[in-house]
Amino acid sequence: MSNLMMTELFKLRKGRIFWLLTVLLLLAGACYPFLIFFNDGTFDAHAVEVKELYTFSALGGNNYIIRLIPCILAGFFISSEYSIGTMKSICASGNSRIRIYLVKLMVFSLGAVIIACTFPFAILSVSAVLSGFYEMPTWLYVVRTLCLTILYALAFASMMAVIAIIFTDSGKTIGFSILFFILIDSILYALAQKFTLFHMLFNHSIFKLFLDIPLNNLSNNELSTIIIVPIVTFLLCAIMGAIIFQRKEIK
Length: 251
Known about the structure:
Blueprint: H1 2-14, H2 16-37, E1 38-39, E2 42-43, H3 50-83, H4 86-91, H5 97-131, H6 139-167, H7 170-192, H8 196-203, H9 206-209, H10 220-247
Antiparallel strand pairs: 1-2
């Protein structure tokens, strides 16, 4: 297991797509505060409170990043290994398929977590420095929101990994994943308006609960639900992906 893990970590560390996505998000997050604090060529250190910029711009914008950007990584990190024959070589190495899938899922999830945290961390850091730490969010709020972001990044990554295993082609994986995560909210919401079962599923899904991460006045029950749902989602998708990979024919 340790050799397999080290191999996958090496692939992630050397992956150009992973670093390209991370650097682009880092630059986007670092540049965004400059657009806010510089207005008509003049600098206003108190143009906006840092806590508002972090809550609405960083966490709000991260809603799309965490759902869509890792889809690109899934296509190149998982699906592309079928077409170039790497997956067949890995399966012939003596490791069980379940172990191979779980290790690959863990490393891919690590990449998704880094991607998910890069944008809000960059905005928070740069805006704090530019504004002289004007009206900062509390550290408890920052830690809570980032920890929840990590949980939901893991949940979304587990779903993307299942899609990548099913399609085994980077182009199909990226295209279907992006389309799926763009449309699924609207589809579930429309069904929730007509069917009680879908109403319950939608309200207790990662797609709905992820939007509640920035909220500051969550009750204990609401916070418990927000924490438990992504964990259960990750475990279920991990089991599903392992079963699919175990039975899949690899050419």
